[in-house]
Amino acid sequence: MKLFFRFLTLVAVLAMNMADVAPAWALTSRIKDIASLQAGRDNQLIGYGLIVGLQGTGDGFRSSPFTEQSMRAMLQNLGISTQGGQSSAKNTAAVMVTANLPPFASPGSRIDVTVSSLGDATSLRGGTLVMTSLSGADGQIYAVAQGAAIVSGFQAQGQAATVTEGVTTAGRVPGGAIIERELPSRFKDSVNLVLQLRNPDFSTAIRIADIVNGYASARFGGPVAEAKDSQEVVIQKPRAADLTRLMADIENLIVETDTPAKVVINERTGTIVIGSDVRVSPVAVSYGTLTVQVTETPQIIQPEPFSRGRTAVQPQTDIAAEQTGGRVAIIDGPDLRTLVAGLNNIGVKPDGIIAILQGIKSAGALQAELVLQ
């Protein structure tokens, strides 16, 4: 009998422990998913080029004279004389070419580029980007781009109608740039690793440092990580460690993440995003809308037959006002599910919920940061 009661007690303790641990499992992430390496950031590249082969949708040389100047300079570099009259063909467009140089990129590898029209071209569909050099912020050329541009939008035009879907003046050249120069800094020349949190938070930064120090103490015999602030965690390289292998081990460590409570509102699209940690103190809400409809129905008054009167227009305006809502509801959100259920019970549209959340924040009952976009 005693063994049976001990077994029940053990089962109860395990159930309580599982209940305490289960929520933490849902909030854990790998370090590589919540932080990035400072030395492993992208670098932006930019260049100016020409797209040729367009079907009459390119730049007009009168409104975009730089396109003609660029085309003449390109032909002269190819040994072709450009003396003569002005061309009226619209099969060429001047574009800005942009790309992101990934970290640790080596010469010979390819990256995607984006092309965007500079002149009055109506579409870049079917065009080919000619050889364009891409430079970094230091003015050095790091890549050369060339290839067929892919445009997702399209445009159809007739004599009386035009149909356009998507953007036809911007596109991509997949794998269109070849890297010609590597970055001056090398990963293994670093003396430490700097992790930058994608969502800065002091609690998460401290937990990352603790997890890394626990791993380093067991592996190298001492702590190596320190949280500088809410965004940066600095990891010193142990003498006997290989930096690449060290980063591979650290980025797969599991950390319990934490984020501040936020409510993000986009009034243009009516989008509302509520974080799981948002809390609302008990508050009474009354929401009502007033709809005013104005209808104009002018009447045409004709004169009597064989009279010298004139046809006149008599204005007639009907105004109707309707007020809905006005119910009072008590909202108390100790968790996200209860908060959403309370807002839905009021029976208002997203724009009404936005107004309610702003009012709750002004009343001091919303225990979260309200972000308006």
UniProtKB/TrEMBL annotation:
It comes from the Bacteria. Its main location: other. The keyword Cytoplasm does not apply. InterPro entries: Flag_FlgI. It holds the Pfam family FlgI. Residues 1-26 form the signal peptide. The keyword Signal applies. It is found in: Bacterial flagellum basal body. GO terms for biological process: bacterial-type flagellum-dependent cell motility. GO terms for molecular function: structural molecule activity. Keywords: Bacterial flagellum, Cell projection, Cilium, Flagellum, Periplasm, Signal. GO terms for cellular component: bacterial-type flagellum basal body, distal rod, P ring; outer membrane-bounded periplasmic space. The basal body constitutes a major portion of the flagellar organelle and consists of four rings (L,P,S, and M) mounted on a central rod. Belongs to the FlgI family. NCBIfam families: PRK05303.1 (NF003676). Assembles around the rod to form the L-ring and probably protects the motor/basal body from shearing forces during rotation. This is Flagellar P-ring protein.
